[in-house]
Amino acid sequence: MQKNVTKTVVVLVGAGLLALYQHFQQPNNTQASTRPPTTVSTQTQGSKPSSADYQQVVEKIRNSRNNPDAKFRAIVQGTVVKLLKDDREGSPHQRFLVEIAPDITLLVAHNIELAPRVPVQQGETITLNAEYVWNDKGGVLHWTHHDPQGRKSGWIEVAGKRYE
Q: Which end of the chain has the lower number of beta carbons within 10 A, N or C?
């Protein structure tokens, strides 16, 4: 009888910790914004995005809400809306939220084992070359650094300086 009670307590504590972790891991898209639209592009590094590019990527992200397999590369410009604690499980990642449109806020997960920490501040405009991956909170931007195997390299630009 005592073994069953112990197992139940362990499962409940584990579920609670998982729920807490997921709550702080994912962005909150329910906040309204008064900031003007920002720029998004799927073009290659160094190109200037057009409004057609912006609309194409924003629509891809909006449509990914119905496609949990959504994954693609994008160049995104937005405003840092919240700094989060580093994720220290596995490879350490610097984490923050960036708003790329009034209804789209994404989590940025930047591997600080493969690249330097980026000195971002809340309210700052940044540009990222990253891989977008769907999640139930809006999505994650990752591979914002060089890839040691040369496949998915990206970067983050802050105040005219690029971090790879």
A: N
